[in-house]
Design goal:
By secondary structure, this protein is α/β, with parallel strands linked by helices. It contains 14 helices and 19 strands.
Length: 464
Amino acid sequence: MSTEVRRRRCGRRRVGGSGRVAAGFTHARGRASRFKGETGSGFSSHVGRQVVLEKAALAGRRVGGSGRVAAGFTHARGRASRLKGETGSGFSSHVGRQGKGLSTLIPLLLLLLVPTGCTEQLSTEYGRRVGMEGGSSVNGTAVLADMFAAAGHRVFSWSSLSPRLDERADCIVWFPDDFQPPGEEVCYWLDDWLSRAAGRTLIYVGRDFDAAVWYWRRVGEGLEGELLEKVARQRHTAEARYRMQRNNLSQRADCGWFQLDGRHRPRKVRTLEGEADWLAGVNPEGLDIELNSRFEYPEDLLAEVVLSSEGDALVARCEMHDSRLLVVTNGSFLLNLPLVNHEHRKLAAKLIAEIGPAGQSVAFLESGPGGPVIRGEEPPAGTPTGMEIFTVWPTSWILLHLAAVGILFCFSRLPIFGRAQELPPAASSDFGLHVDAVARLLKRSADRSYATARVMQYHQTKTT
């Protein structure tokens, strides 16, 4: 891409955003022996409730400013016991109150990590905020979206680049489920969106990370015997799936926003460099960030790396048309499961603060391989039939369960008592049966006079 195009896309630096919020979860390991003793030999869904709950005690707190709010979630023997702290257990209707908003993330994250046993597989769908698979996925974005809401922003999900998205969104957060950089047409549409109004923000998060592998590694710590073997098999399966997905990763690629280099070896992040605001209050030794492929930013791009580690960029900022582009190398500190880490939540809060004051409309753009669809106009809504309610969660699940209960109720009203028996055949020598048959024939004739005459004739014959 030419130098002129890059200079046109990126302009002067503008530093903005105040009132940064640092929030985090503390993580403590539990005893695997207690888990093993309680679960026995069974192994449900993805190691069940106990292994996660015994290995993770979650707590969240908001740091900085006046009126600090602390909230914690304690757990004993696999059961959530109580939410304590100054915020209480309720959720304030005013999402602008960050303390109360963040307190709801604690039970939410716990539910994300602990399935109820209705599924057989760990939910790993990437980059989704809502839905049965996306919202509860270890690779989902529901927790980050709730942090945006807790900071006072309005959050919604979108799946295409359309005129309505152009009108509604002040900030777009994009976790593409694609190891390749965005295509030229997508970049052009988003560049144009940034130029249409001042103060807009685009946050692009690279794909080269899978929280499922991270999950199984943590679950396996401290286990032994048969249970460890089962967890190891799950981890190997997740690693193989991740390597297969990475086969689509280019060794070198350039999308105009950055240059992707897939030739580096994966490593952990243990040191941080960058702007003072990003480094403030963050303990690098507590991080669990993984770097796989790297993003590079040529000097002519005028991008500023605001957070890095040993020369490898983690977060970069580029001023574009009085708006800004924020590029994050991968989601290893922004996805649902990594946000259990307290230091990761601090970095996520600093990223949220970059978009500016509260009250903005934040769109979580969701797309698969190839990027989002570009639409010149919104698709027609279609004629409603009433059946759409069966496609909306959780109404769909509620109605399906009610239908199942209704079918069982109908069967309960038509029972068969005891074993089926054969009735004895009617006796052919019973004269009363002959009388009944004659009476039915007379009734069918519908001639009252004829029937009366026949009865009187019978009586006369009998008396003589």
